[in-house]
Amino acid sequence: MMTANQKLKRKQFGTVWAELAYLCEKIHHWLWTRRDMSPARRFQSRLHAVLNALPENRLAILREEGWALLHELEGELAAAIEHRKKEIRLIERLHESVKLSIDGGKYDAAVGDSILEKWDAGALKERRDILKALLLKNGRRGAGTKVRRNGIDDAARSRSHSSKHRAAGRKRPA
Description:
Elements: H1 4-9, H2 16-33, H3 37-41, H4 44-53, H5 61-73, H6 77-103, H7 109-115, H8 121-140, E1 148-149, E2 152-153, H9 154-167
Antiparallel strand pairs: 1-2
């Protein structure tokens, strides 16, 4: 339970998106800069609540980062990987859009740089490195671990898939 003093210290945000940006920054720092999951877990329930409070927007880079971090904290690496992939695709799409707008004279390079401030080439490289690390980590996990897709663990999916093929008199595909 949070004390009155802790409630006073909690940072206030003007929008749910600002709080999401703050939480992603904090969790990213602990997970990927300091490589310490324990402090990152302090923000897990808040991150979950904020993500569920967001308005629908399938093109929000920050939303994908938030979901990737949440799934990573929950040990659901397959889901984290999928959200990282979406995040990278959206950043690449943003880069293409900015380049086209600059080339087309809609705005100058300074405006383009300000748009890409948080999502520049360095951020894109960092996200790709994180994706590689997650893929490697996921590849080292054994069957029956908590790596999940759509709420079903891989071992259960495999058992279900095998039983369907046996019931139909077919061998499981390799």
